[in-house]
Amino acid sequence: MASKVCGKCCAPKHALPASRSKLKRSLFVEAMAGGIVLILAVLGIVPHPLKVGDQIDLATQQRMQQREEQLRQEMIRLQQEFDKMTQELQSGLFLKNMLLAMWEVWPFGALPGALVLLFELFWMATEVDFDESESSSDESSSSSEEEEEAPVNEWDVGRFLMQQMQVPVLHLAKRCKVVEALVGDLLHACHLITLNTPLLRLEQCIGVGSAFEGWSSHWDTVYSLLVPLKPPTGHCFHLELGAGGELPARHGRVRVELECVCLRQQLLGDVRCFLHRPEAELGRNQGPCLLQYLCSHSYLDVEKTACWFQLTAMNAWLLLPASHRCRLTVLPSSRSCKLRLEKVSGRSLSIEILFGVQQGDSRVFLTSQQARAGLPSSTTWLESCAVPEMLFFRFVARQAPQDSCHLTCLNLFARLLEGTGFSTYCLKTVLMHLLTVIPLSRWHRGHLLERVDGILQYLQRCLEDKQLHHFLLGNERVPREVPLPVAFQTASPLNLFQRLAQEPDAHAQALRDFRRLQVRLRSLL
Questions:
Q1: What ranges does the record give for the region Disordered, renumbered to this chain (predicted)?
Q2: For the segment 221-251, what is each residue's pLDDT rounded down to a tens digit?
Q3: How many other C-beta atoms lie within 10 A of the C-beta of residue 491?
Q4: CB 300 within 8 A of CB 237
Q5: What is the pLDDT of residues 429-458, one digit of tens each?
Q6: Cβ(355)–Cβ(302) under 8 Å?
Q7: 448-465 vs 406-416: helix axis angle to the nearest 10?
């Protein structure tokens, strides 16, 4: 039997025989259950202790009986959770460490200790075991290979492709939920650390990119999340969008200005008005920190913001329970926060946190995303449509049949495009157009080959016409559930194939890449 490794000391320990290990685990679970009964009992007694000489009247006795019944029901629920978790745990060492951590918190009160324990249990219950996910995906792949020898018709090929790609997508959805919850906890810890500093306010994160759209099935996927930024009290943002840029790739800057909060200072006294009180009265280290530390010439600096968040995130991570069993590494990045999360088992996750400032009530942001051609300065932000595109795919997921094949089509073409001049964004744009033209009821997996052929035909027509319009600009078919700025709604269509119309050599190469794509698809089917 393979040796087991303790998450804290990393010292190998040989596993006990199955019977002894099972017996010790059951005894430990019973001990934990008894400890929780003690915790709940203390929680029930401490708030209302009986004094010497107090008499228990009928009403008090009834409350005690009700409390006893509540504790009994809670005990049953916790016992069921323990039974479920013990089947998934590979070692009981983490539970012991968790109990010791709770015992260290105990002197501060029974309630904090119980909350720490329940939070740890909740985290364990919701954590995805990436090793098991990969093994189940491998088993699904092997079973699909056995079915490949069956007679091939439209339905069989559709079922084969769905089985090949549906399992990774399901595990991808689970991972996205775990990553989004983890980053949410990290942002909450960052908020606690910076609570008394007049710096940026971090809003709830938004999952963006292919992973959160549901069509990226590679295990080395980078999970991208956008964190909206809000100014602190006494400050405001003014967006200055570049007039020379072309939608939706305009550059912009975020100007930071001071606001008068004298009235709030007089009524509540929880803020200082930086605008009407000189810095000398506020103290040398209590000036407008946002303008001093995160801005350059009154404009919000992307690189300073990224550096500040990276330092804050490293300290906030130590406050999370996940830090006891996972190692967080902050990777070098000047315009974002790139994280690598590693488990003791060796599995890892790559996360990139981007920052953005929202444009009005729309879901278009000026983000810290790096442009392909580079940006002129650290105070320049890039306009991004990542959130509206994610909202569109969520809208389609709610309206489409349960076994819709539109994500399967994207996964299929994402793999076939490797080595060609076509980008996945190009095929995603084609798919988004077709999803608003072809009724969603006709995206059933039984129509998979028909939909794949439709995507190829649409792409071929775009290449022949040298014209592929951006999906969100001047398109009346965009659902109302995807809020866009007025400038996007009234804009003229943007041709993503403009380069093909201007450069004959690029157009000829695109036609050769398309023929290669056709050959690859025919060989697969």
A1: 133-152
A2: 899 999 999 998 888 899 998 755 556 667 8
A3: 18
A4: yes
A5: 999 999 999 999 999 988 888 999 999 999
A6: yes
A7: 60
